[in-house]
């Protein structure tokens, strides 16, 4: 976990809001592209005299550059003008912000009794010193539960064989 005080309600609400936000941005981008409200900008490629030196090509110096005519994009919602590469970071930031706020509003987790092994090493600086006594408690609890299930299975097998 990156946010130590998060709880299950914050995680669920944050995940849903992040998915919805990413979906809105993604579908909004597709809509404005399909409606030709936003068009991809093309880089101009003009061969200069360096072409022959580097690539062995002759370039005509008598070229006229025709500027592209792009529509005005200032009225488009800014999130719909973003590159598709920004959809994931927008979703992740939404999850972190909304999930943290919901966790704080619905009752934050007690950080003093939290197992530090459950928190990402990047975020462990947020834990109080008292939490270090619970290090490994979660893995020990699962090991005890696994051992109890194995013992119960062995008892069942031995009672069936008798």
From TrEMBL:
InterPro entries (UniProt xref): Na/Glc_symporter_sf (IPR038377), Sodium:Solute_Symporter_SSF (IPR051163)
Molecular function per GO: symporter activity
TM spans (from-to): 12-32, 84-105
Keyword Lipoprotein: no
Keyword field contains Membrane: yes
Membrane topology field: Multi-pass membrane protein
The entry's keywords: Cell membrane, Ion transport, Membrane, Sodium, Sodium transport, Transmembrane, Transmembrane helix, Transport
GO biological-process terms attached to the record: sodium ion transport
Compartments (UniProt record): Cell membrane
GO cellular component: plasma membrane
Source organism per UniProt: Acanthoscelides obtectus
Protein name in the entry: Uncharacterized protein
């Amino acid at each position: 976990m990156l946010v130590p005080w998060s709880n299950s309600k914050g995680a669920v609400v944050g995940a849903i809001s992040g998915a919805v936000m990413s979906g809105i941005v993604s579908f909004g981008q597709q809509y404005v592209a399909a409606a030709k409200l936003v068009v991809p900008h093309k880089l101009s490629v003009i061969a200069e005299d360096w072409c022959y030196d580097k690539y062995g090509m002759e370039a005509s110096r008598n070229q006229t550059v025709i500027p592209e005519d792009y529509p005005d994009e200032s009225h488009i919602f800014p999130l719909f003008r973003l590159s598709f590469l920004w959809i994931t970071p927008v979703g992740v930031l939404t999850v972190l912000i909304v999930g943290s706020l919901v966790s704080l509003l619905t009752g934050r987790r007690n950080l003093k009794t939290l197992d530090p092994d459950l928190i990402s090493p990047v975020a462990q600086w947020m834990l109080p010193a008292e939490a270090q006594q619970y290090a490994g408690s979660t893995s020990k609890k699962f090991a005890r539960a696994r051992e109890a299930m194995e013992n119960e299975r062995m008892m069942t097998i031995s009672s069936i064989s008798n």
